[in-house]
Amino acid sequence: MESAIDKHLKCPRTLSRRVPDQYQPPFPMWVARAGEELRQVVMAYLGVQYQGEAQKAAALAALQHIVASFALTDGPLNHDLTHHTDNSGYDNLIVVGYWKDPAAYCRWLRSSEVDGWWSAEARLHEGLGYFREVVAPRAEQFETLYAFREDLPGVGAVMDSTSGEIEEHGYWGSMRDRFPASQTDWMEPDDELRILSGDPAKGGRVIVGGHDNIALIRSGQDWAEAGPEERSLYLDEILPTLEAGMDFLRDNGAPLGCYSNRFVRNIDLQGNLLDTSYNIGHWRSVEKLERWAESHPTHLRIFVTFFRVAAGLQKLRLYHEVSVSDGRQQLFEYINCHAQTGMLRDAKPAPQACPAQANAS
Amino acid sequence: MESAIDKHLKCPRTLSRRVPDQYQPPFPMWVARAGEELRQVVMAYLGVQYQGEAQKAAALAALQHIVASFALTDGPLNHDLTHHTDNSGYDNLIVVGYWKDPAAYCRWLRSSEVDGWWSAEARLHEGLGYFREVVAPRAEQFETLYAFREDLPGVGAVMDSTSGEIEEHGYWGSMRDRFPASQTDWMEPDDELRILSGDPAKGGRVIVGGHDNIALIRSGQDWAEAGPEERSLYLDEILPTLEAGMDFLRDNGAPLGCYSNRFVRNIDLQGNLLDTSYNIGHWRSVEKLERWAESHPTHLRIFVTFFRVAAGLQKLRLYHEVSVSDGRQQLFEYINCHAQTGMLRDAKPAPQACPAQANAS
């Protein structure tokens, strides 16, 4: 048994773990490991928004274009593709790319091919929406959790290995306890989402400013290799409750501090559905995520089911990764997306410059 | 809003609270308050064990005798009576008495009337079982929580007043956070239950030795004044799940660290049922209680229901009190009780004196 917090990320605690040292988890779980040289990762969710079958081919072509750009120098080390329909009735294709070198990501983003495409006037007139939601958590700002040990998805795929059985899981608060940052930091938000430029109601280009410690959770399911029993466990028992919980957050998340919630299904490059899915949740803070997860009937039911079956899982793969990030390590940009997309819904207009300040400048 | 930990019990923390300072509970709850002069309380659960209607009158007379002894000098300041049938098929009458002066309790216990009755040879030959389970937590070793503010039951009745709305509730871990001791102490067990004298299998007199930080929870329900809607909420919605959870703990608690669990119904001195009840749970530690409460389907369902209705409760009174105590501030004594009673079930034989030690002494 070992701590979820890797040795080189340990530091003298000013905040205590939630459980005593004697705590024993009720079943085994694992986390992703990387060497000390991994200082910061980049998680870039790049989206194409469209409406219905008529636009599907164009949207898919746009997604394929983005994926092709990953083959450029400094592209991401891992990526996967998803589709979901949002509660405004729009379809969305997202590719998420993972980097373990923020400088490489920066060079890629600023390359003439990538920046040229994003900045081109043509993007405004294709009848499609585009978005980029990117966070770059440092090594102490994210945690992972897997009920399996091979072929880690998501950020795990750009890391080096899998841990031994870890201590910090199976209790409420263990997510926080797996963050190296939690040893000394409450990871609290310092501001609200702000519209930095543009107007979501008018479409066009909009930039949203984030804030410190926005929490991003990717919580995934992979039933591709599951036998009949585990397929049924997932599809008949877990999925209906999971969908109810994720729909609840999508539709009612704002007052709870959930900025955006997308339950997405993996697809291949041609748009065919795969037997993997995940939820992408953006939260005002880890604390808001904790409060919901610990109290909402749907999540408690999922938790109970997981507790019951976790020790016996064979091929059904369940996992999550959760990060926080500094506000200045976030990028939320939208082109012609509807006003409920991503961070747009809860972003407040930037405070107007006060005339006295304007005069002073 | 104020902390559940009273001002005079605050100390510099070495262990952190589970939630950030900004945490806001989702509905109001209150705790009992007492002045600095309250240093330690005594909670004495005094029981009579019998089988079936034939013995009921004798058992009730024994209970009445104990209650009458409360009127002696230094008797408890508050008490209430209960009945429950245990899973060995025995009936049990318990009166719990509360003192706020441990010296008074000691004088009462050692008085010739009380000690004489308990120690009398006659107790062994009445065909009834008797037990005394007493703990004496210091002010920093117990916490309370009420969804109401008037006429506090249990330990609250021997305290002075009710707090304002408190901060530490509505999240897993808040029970621990309400213990003043939790500011600096994990409240961990230091040993196991041990048979100190006698043999539970043979009956007769048996004394069990406790250990530091046994957790005792009294978790109560009072629907006496509830209107039709709240009676139905309690009896039809909460009670079935509550009973399932409490039965589970009674029958399957041992591997979870639950030494004893009794869901008891209040009665009057004649044995008539009242519309109040509570659960009496003894646990190896607060941590074991936390683990069960946070993960068992029945408790999660009760929690979800409580969250839903808490803000609107009118006359249905729900509350709990939880304590830990030092091993030497505990008394577990049994006379002719069956071997599954109270602490008897999980108590291990005392380690046999090693011959070398015996020689050395």
From TrEMBL, chains A, B:
**Record flagged with keyword Lyase:** yes
Required co-factors? heme b
Q: Which GO terms describe its molecular function?
A: lyase activity; metal ion binding
- Tree of life domain: Bacteria
Its keywords, alphabetically, are: Heme, Iron, Lyase, Metal-binding
Signal peptide boundaries:
none
Pfam families found in the cross-reference section: Dehydratase_hem
Similarity remark: Belongs to the heme-containing dehydratase family.
Any idea what this protein is called?
Phenylacetaldoxime dehydratase
Natural source organism: Pseudomonas parafulva
